[in-house]
Design goal:
The chain is of the alpha/beta class. It has 17 helices and 17 strands. It binds pyridoxal-5'-phosphate (PLP).
Length: 417
């Protein structure tokens, strides 16, 4: 801390120079250097305030420096901060029970704890392998993480190709295409390529631009996986824990159509900003695929992370944030769409996982203009700006954000010739 306080007068520019001299360049230069946050706001090293409409990519469910979360993390760290998985802790066990209850998971269900989304999906990948079947089906546009198993599930060639060969047996079917999905499970596909171990899908694709699966898709996915004896794995790393207005996105009838999955993976919003991942295995078959000694982690299930998640879930419940997310999300959507900015084509998504659709591929310029105007947003696609604000976003803050989108303009490029 003293080392950092000695540098508290550094400007954003000075910090940016220091960053490029010390931090590996995998993300490009940081847009700003942020020094503190409170609620839905953060402040940069020059003292400028921003309304955080991204929440660390759908992570800071309770905003920044939430007193309940801060107290829970401090209390657990001051009591018992880490023990390894040779031991259990009340926080870890209570969180597992809490997640099973929120998931309305049947008896025999169990939880595995990890530290991130990619690790949760890595565990799901290993569960799929334990079925003894060779094929895993995932979706085009799907994003599941950057470790090699999760990367094999991820579709984007630019992420995959530098690291090939990746673990084999993964096939990608076009997003939302029910015929292609049926083909993947057809007798012809099975006799040519073998049985399907698992189908891995995001109920709403986050990194691909906030794209919701067409109605009925997950119900079909459940029918096909049931008939084939394959696992239905839902990656709710981004959509889980209240983000779309229900604990898990699949629990909304319009998305899930009443399906019960075999596996759900969680991470981003679960710890309210403290790193944690989780795998919920529904029912005894899924829950026993990984046996003793077949998977592990040093930090996973760490009591501080578990306490953070319990506090986050507790506040979502206490403050009725699921209903709040639906209501403020609708306010935000309506205010942006009704403003009539010719640059805005519409808003897609659900709850507080939204994308502002643009009429031109200028999302990067809009995000830069937002930053200048004091709003943090994310150009998730050339023509779409992602909004994933804290679940505690107020109506007034939503209307501030909408005002930015009502007024933002990006000059047309000069016509050729
Ligand atoms: C972010 C994300 C991941 C990866 O999570 P990390 O914590 O970055 O490893 C996996 N799946 C989905 C759907 C995500 O949005």
């Amino acid at each position: 801390m003293s080392e950092m306080s000695a540098r508290r007068d550094l400007t954003t520019q000075e910090w940016q120079n220091a960053y490029s001299g010390a931090v590996m360049d995998t993300f490009g230069p940081p847009q700003r250097i942020l020094v503190r946050g409170e609620g839905a706001y953060v402040w940069d090293a020059d003292g400028k305030r921003y309304l955080d409409l991204l929440a660390g990519i759908a992570v800071n469910s309770l905003g920044h420096a939430h007193p309940t979360l801060t107290a829970a993390v401090s209390a657990q760290m001051g009591t018992l901060g880490h023990v390894s998985n040779f031991f259990g802790t009340p926080a870890q066990i209570t969180l597992a029970e809490r997640l099973l209850a929120l998931a309305e998971a049947p008896s025999g269900s169990r939880v595995f704890f990890a530290n991130s989304g990619t690790e949760a999906n890595e565990a799901a990948f290993k569960m799929a392998r334990r079925t003894g079947r060779p094929r895993i089906v995932a979706l085009e546009g799907g994003f599941h993480g950057r470790t090699v198993g999760a990367l094999a599930l991820t579709h984007k060639p630019a992420y995959r190709e530098p690291f090939e060969p990746l673990p084999g047996g993964v096939e990608h079917v076009p997003f939302g295409d029910t015929t292609a999905l049926e083909e993947a499970f057809s007798p012809a596909a099975v006799s040519a390529r073998g049985e399907v171990a698992a189908l891995v899908v995001e109920p709403v694709q986050g990194e691909a631009g906030v794209r919701e699966l067409p109605a009925g898709y997950l119900a079909l996915a459940r029918r096909l996986t049931d008939d084939a004896g394959a696992l239905l794995v839902l990656d709710e790393v981004q959509t889980g824990v209240g983000r779309t207005g229900s604990w898990f996105a699949y629990q909304q009838p319009e998305i899930g159509g009443g399906v019960v999955p075999d596996v759900v993976t969680l991470a981003k919003g679960l710890g309210g900003g403290f790193p944690i991942g989780a795998v919920i295995a529904y029912g005894e078959r899924a829950a026993t695929l990984l046996g003793r000694g077949q998977h592990g982690t040093t930090f996973g299930g760490n009591p501080v992370a578990a306490a953070a998640a319990l506090a986050t879930i507790g506040v979502v419940e206490r403050d009725r944030l699921l209903a709040h997310v639906r209501q403020v999300g609708e306010t935000l959507r309506r205010a942006i769409t009704t403003a009539g900015n010719p640059l805005v084509a519409g808003v897609r998504g659900r709850g507080l996982l939204l994308a502002v659709e643009l009429t031109r591929p200028v999302a990067a310029q809009v995000a830069t203009a937002a930053l200048e105007a004091g709003f943090i947003v994310n150009p998730v696609a050339p023509d779409a700006v992602r909004l994933a604000p804290p679940l505690i976003l107020t109506t007034d803050q939503a209307l501030d954000a909408a005002r930015f989108f009502a007024e933002v303009a990006v000059p047309e490029p000069p016509k050729e010739g």
